[in-house]
Structures are given as structure tokens and as C-alpha cells.
Amino acid sequence: MVILKDPQGTDLKYEALDMKSTSTIKSPDTSNLMDFLELITPEKRSWWASSQPDRLTVDFRADLPLQGMREQKDLDLIGDPDTTMTAIKSRFGVKHVVIAGLDGYQGDFTGDFNRSSFEGIVLTAAEAGRLYQAVCGKTFDDVRYIHVHWGSELIFRVRAPGGSQVKDIVSFLSEYLSKTNVTPEKDQVIFNPLTRRELDPEETIEPETAVIAIAGEMRRLDVTRTGILNRPSVRRKLSYRNFSDSLDTRRPCCNCLACSSVCRAGLSPSILYHFAESGAEDLDSLGADLCFHCGLCTHVCPSNIPLSTGIGGINADAS
Questions:
Q1: N or C: which end of the chain has fewer CB within 10 A?
Q2: Distance between CA 159 and CA 264 in Å, rounded?
Q3: Taking the model in full, what pTM does it have?
Q4: To 5 degrees, how large is the angle CA 118–CA 93–CA 113?
Q5: What ranges do the domains of the chain cover?
Q6: Residues with Cβ within 8 Å of residue 42, at least 6 apart in sequence
Q7: What would the pLDDT profile of 31-65 be if each residue is shown by its tens digit?
């Protein structure tokens, strides 16, 4: 177990757990990077396919800009960074490889990385680790990594079999906590802490459900800002309070474009959302099919507009 600190100095207990998956995926017998990536995270296929395949970055900056998660780099998922990236570069003939966001790293793949202007493929540490496993062997593990905020002091990273549902993760953690001094709250409500959307226990784990928060029935997420003058910012603290309608209110879009500044796919979520709300069709020309529902746009929106959910509706209609 690791002790993290949130921006206010509160201790947060972080622990990595494994559901012991035995399922594997056959590694493609090719040197086409996309053949591998679409098996690792299928939901990102369109985004990666629109990127330059000869440029690759592994970004160690936390996927979850919440409650101390910036400190957790998931280095254990990739092993030795230089060994991993050398193998990947050699197998796929990638010309430009950078490891970003890893404090103190001075290895072979040091370089500048600006997410907003980078046109290559961006991987998380977990994705790079699985890609390395696929490159080195005939199969690789069919798993997903889920971050779970249990109350306001416990954070788990769960390694779950591919195809797992939200209820499987909750059941696994409930059983684990039953063996400790932690008593799970009754009548649990399960949320995505970035979008604040209540999750269906039957939902399959995908990028939009790969981060979960769990609280009691009458408590909902209250994501408060720590930015200056309440400006749009990803520096928001995750906390809980008794549910009230005020947590679910939205205000008119103020056209701040904070959502565009954090979108990993380089989209303009507010524009897509407004088109979707107006009933417009054929929004793929604006990149709706590139969205893989990480939830960051909703997270930073100062008007509490459910941008990610709205864009998800576009993709659902298109399919």
C-alpha cells in the first residue's frame, strides 16, 4: 500500500490489486502497430488510426487528475522504460519515441511532449506494458486496469479480466474489504468521478468506466475547484457530501473552451455537444468518432455540462 497526498495534505491509501485473470489474446504476426493497439484498447482505434504511426509517446502523467493521483505514475506496469520502448521501437519501426511525465527520467527516450500539438500515438503506461508483452510473446494478458475511489480515503487500482463488468469490480473489492477493518457502506451508489454519471452495475469496463467512485446511498460526488477564482481547471478535489439537487444542476455554456484544452483526441467537445443537442447528424466530420469517453471534458466544465455523455450519445446513434 502506498500513501498519497491530496492537494490539501490529506493521507490517501493507494493499493494495487489483481483479480488473477488467466485470459490471453493472441499477438498478431505482423509489424503493423495498429494491429496490436486495436486489440489492447479497441475504443481508441479511431483516435490512434488518425495519428502519425511513426511518432509515439508514453505519457506517465496521471489519467485521473484527482486527489493525489498525479503522484501515482504506474511505473510497475511498464517495467524498465528503456528496455520496453527499445523493443517497441524496433518491432514497429517507430522513428520518434518519447517518454513523458516520468519525474527524474534521463534515459534514451527523453524529449519534449506537448499533448495539444503532438500528432503521434499516445499510450498510457498500462497500454505500453501490454504492447511490450505482446511484442515479446505469442500472447498477452486480456486485462483492464480500473481505478476505484472507495469513499474519500481509499484508492485501488484493480487489474481485472477483459469483459469484466462494474459489478464484478465492486464485488471483488467488497470481499477484499470484508477481510480488513473497513466496513463497506450500505446501499452503495457507483459513479464515474470525472463525469459524475451513475454507473449501471451491468456496464462493461471500458475507458468511460475505468474510473469508479463508490459512496453511500444519500451521498454523491462533490468535485470542488482548487483553481484561482474558480476558473476552469483539472485541479479539482474529489470529496463526498449528502446529495442535493444543486450537485446536478448545469448552467449555459460560457464558451471558455476548457474542454478543448484537455481533450486527448484534440476535439472541441462543447461544439460537438451543441450540435448533438440541436439534432444535427453526421458529426463524424467534426471528429465525434474519435472520442473514447475519458470524461475529462465534463470534469473541467465550469457549467457542469455532461459533455462526454452527450458525445457518447452521438456515437451510439451512429452505431
A1: C
A2: 23
A3: 0.83
A4: 20
A5: 2-17+146-248, 24-141, 258-318
A6: none
A7: 999 999 999 999 899 999 999 999 999 988 755 55
How are strands ordered across the β-sheet holding 143-150?
2-5, 11-18, 154-161, 143-150, 211-215, 189-191
DSSP 204: B
Identity of the residue numbered 57: T
Q: Write out the E strands in 151-301.
A: 154-161, 189-191, 211-215, 219-225, 236-242
| Grid-cell match 450537485, residue found | 247
Helix (H, G, I), strand (E, B) or coil at 289: helix
Place of cell 477483459: 162
268: exposed, middle or buried (Cβ count in 10 Å: 0-12, 13-18, 19+): middle
Per the document, the length of the chain is 319
Lookup result for grid cell 452505431: 319
Q: Tell me which residue of 81, 79, 86, 69 sits closest to 234, measured CA to CA.
A: 69
How far from 98 is each of 37, 246, 319, CA to CA, in Å?
18, 43, 35
CATH class of 2-17+146-248: alpha beta
Q: What mean pLDDT value characterizes the chain?
A: 80
**C-alpha cell at position 35:** 494491429
The set of cell numbers assigned to 208 is 468511460
